[in-house]
Amino acid sequence: MMLEYIGVPYDERRFLHTEKEQWFADKYNLGFDFPNLPYLIDGDKKITQSHVITMYLGKKHGLAGNGDNDIIKIAMAEGAIKDIRSAISKITLNSDYEKLRPGFMPTFFKGLEALSKFLGDKKYLIGDKLCYADFVLYENLDVFEVFEPGCLDKYPNLKRFKKDFESLPKIKAYLESDRSIKWPLNNWQAKFGGGFEPPAKK
């Protein structure tokens, strides 16, 4: 999504769950220090870990703020967002997910409350200018709304942020294209967001 916004041409390679052998054949032959998915190859730079990829692209293309204060705020916000997402992934990979979910929800909403407080009345996470963590926030707010429909109703600033972000012309065009990955939202075997197709709406 960030590459679409930046307007940089790219070649995307996707590995389906059924293509493990292909990925494993490539995994240790591409020259990565820490082979993993996703990965980015940009010239002589070979990068893994999603947060490092977004940080690199942000710094390279003017989406990393200005000065130490912005660097700190962006990193903290991204970490807080990913803490929520990681916690969701952890319980949804547990066979007792349905039993664990009710006890997890206060933690989930506490995380949203913190994000809402951090965003405040700002347009984006660090002010009026987009940063790479805004892309992380949008992606995860989208997942959070599927995980708990209506969860943003208590946080109008997060809801406004999401609406404004997906209305950006380049983002809107991407989301409406077949390049946009709609599913899965999680590891394929997870109790939430997994599988090959989204569940039928009730």
Automatic annotation (TrEMBL):
<comment type="subunit">
    <text>Homodimer.</text>
</comment>
<comment type="function">
    <text>GST isoenzymes appear to play a central role in the parasite detoxification system. Other functions are also suspected including a role in increasing the solubility of haematin in the parasite gut.</text>
</comment>
<dbReference type="InterPro" id="IPR004046">
    <property type="entry name" value="GST_C"/>
</dbReference>
<keyword id="KW-0808">Transferase</keyword>
<dbReference type="InterPro" id="IPR036282">
    <property type="entry name" value="Glutathione-S-Trfase_C_sf"/>
</dbReference>
<dbReference type="InterPro" id="IPR004045">
    <property type="entry name" value="Glutathione_S-Trfase_N"/>
</dbReference>
<dbReference type="Pfam" id="PF02798">
    <property type="entry name" value="GST_N"/>
</dbReference>
<feature type="domain" description="GST C-terminal">
    <location>
        <begin position="67"/>
        <end position="185"/>
    </location>
</feature>
<dbReference type="GO" id="GO:0006749">
    <property type="term" value="P:glutathione metabolic process"/>
</dbReference>
<feature type="domain" description="GST N-terminal">
    <location>
        <begin position="1"/>
        <end position="65"/>
    </location>
</feature>
<dbReference type="InterPro" id="IPR010987">
    <property type="entry name" value="Glutathione-S-Trfase_C-like"/>
</dbReference>
<dbReference type="Pfam" id="PF14497">
    <property type="entry name" value="GST_C_3"/>
</dbReference>
<dbReference type="InterPro" id="IPR050213">
    <property type="entry name" value="GST_superfamily"/>
</dbReference>
<protein>
    <recommendedName>
        <fullName>glutathione transferase</fullName>
        <ecNumber>2.5.1.18</ecNumber>
    </recommendedName>
</protein>
<dbReference type="InterPro" id="IPR036249">
    <property type="entry name" value="Thioredoxin-like_sf"/>
</dbReference>
<dbReference type="GO" id="GO:0004364">
    <property type="term" value="F:glutathione transferase activity"/>
</dbReference>
<comment type="similarity">
    <text>Belongs to the GST superfamily. Mu family.</text>
</comment>
<dbReference type="InterPro" id="IPR040079">
    <property type="entry name" value="Glutathione_S-Trfase"/>
</dbReference>
<comment type="function">
    <text>Conjugation of reduced glutathione to a wide number of exogenous and endogenous hydrophobic electrophiles.</text>
</comment>
